[in-house]
Write a structure and sequence with these properties.
The protein is of the alpha+beta class. The protein has a single domain, classed as Thiol Ester Dehydrase, Chain A, CATH 3.10.129. The chain is 27% helix and 31% strand. The mean pLDDT is 89.
């Protein structure tokens, strides 16, 4: 999407990920084996997903959503925006654990926008959330991204935006 197509306050559903025992074990074996030891030490033996596993799942859903949007734009023969970079994220936290069997739904909300010194790019700030099936927050963070501006001749200015 272009900078002009991202209204402040817009919420985009990014989809959901099921955290199965198998997926948690696969992630733990590859990236965080201490999770397996922690599960073995628990009385109930239940696994808890790594926070980075949850963040990776959100990023996958974000990329899949953006790919689908670009494919839909291409199918309509619309101009595709250049992909911008992100200077990073901040305040990532995991208020509640993700346990095996949880299904986490992810969303992104546009919280602010501003023009940059480069007329081809705008800066968009988003907040991201992951909620489990009990509506508990399991992941929260914010980030900014450079978003391509529409070519000058395609911009529509509304006087009260």
């Amino acid at each position: 999407m272009f900078y002009e197509d991202m209204p402040i306050g817009a919420v985009t559903a990014l989809g959901a990920t099921a955290f199965t025992r198998e997926s948690i074990i696969a992630y733990a074996r590859r990236f965080d084996p201490r999770l397996l030891a922690a599960a073995a030490a628990r009385e109930d033996g239940l696994l808890v997903a790594s926070g980075l596993h949850v963040a990776c799942a959100l990023m996958r859903r974000l990329v899949e959503t953006r790919v689908a949007l670009r494919e839909a734009m291409a199918a309509r023969r619309q101009s595709l925006p250049e992909l911008g970079v992100s200077p990073g994220f901040r305040e990532m936290r995991w208020p509640n654990s993700v346990r095996e069997g949880d299904v986490v739904s992810f969303s992104m909300k546009t919280i602010s926008k501003r023009e940059t010194s480069k007329p081809k790019w705008g800066l968009v700030a988003n907040s991201f959330r992951g909620l489990n099936q009990r509506d508990e927050e399991v992941l929260i963070f914010s980030s900014v991204v450079l978003a391509a501006r529409k070519p000058q001749e395609n911009r529509f200015h509304r006087p009260f935006d």
